[in-house]
Specification:
The protein has 154 residues and is mainly alpha-helical. The chain is built from six helices and no strands. α1 packs antiparallel against α2, α2 runs antiparallel to α3 and α2 packs across α6. The termini are far apart. The model has no long low-confidence stretch (mean pLDDT 94).
Length: 154
């Protein structure tokens, strides 16, 4: 399913947009039907998918060797409701999502950088990479839940 960077990025971009819908729906239910649990559920799902999308954007940016601008735009697009979809379209149209996972040294001098060697090592072991990413996202998610929602619990 995620054999290429474009499919992984597109899947998470769509999931992030769907999670915005769940959060907004939860906010509406809280205001209209006095159901605060709806925000907890929608917000929790959105928070986890938000972090997973950010991790995916960084992973794909490293693999595709985006500059700081496109990488930052991809990550920041998750903050604006539904912006991950047009961002994915733009990245696709500009060719930034073109290509496969970089599993081997291509002879490019950048392939000798420690971050590129580490990336290739993880990409050759996709299950390890997936477990590490899920663990990192889960730890950050739990830490953020412990700290509390933006703006406090008021």
């Amino acid at each position: 399913m995620f054999r290429t960077p474009p499919t992984l990025f597109r899947t998470l971009a769509i999931a992030e947009a769907v999670s915005w819908t769940l959060l907004i729906g939860g906010l509406i239910l809280r205001a209209a039907a006095d159901l605060p649990a709806a925000v907890s559920i929608g917000g929790g799902i959105h928070g986890f998918v938000f972090l997973a999308y950010g991790a995916t954007a960084i992973l794909v940016a490293l693999n595709q060797r985006w500059g700081v601008g496109p990488a930052a735009l991809a990550v920041v697009s998750a903050v604006i409701p539904y912006a991950t979809i047009p961002t994915e379209i733009w990245l696709h149209r500009t060719g930034r999502l073109r290509g496969a996972w970089r599993l081997d040294d291509s002879g490019d001098p950048r392939d000798r950088r420690p971050i590129d060697r580490l990336l290739r090592s993880f990409l050759r072991r996709p299950w390890v990479l997936a477990l590490v990413l899920v663990a990192v996202v889960a730890v950050v998610f739990v830490v953020l839940l412990t700290v509390g929602p933006p703006g406090g619990k008021g």
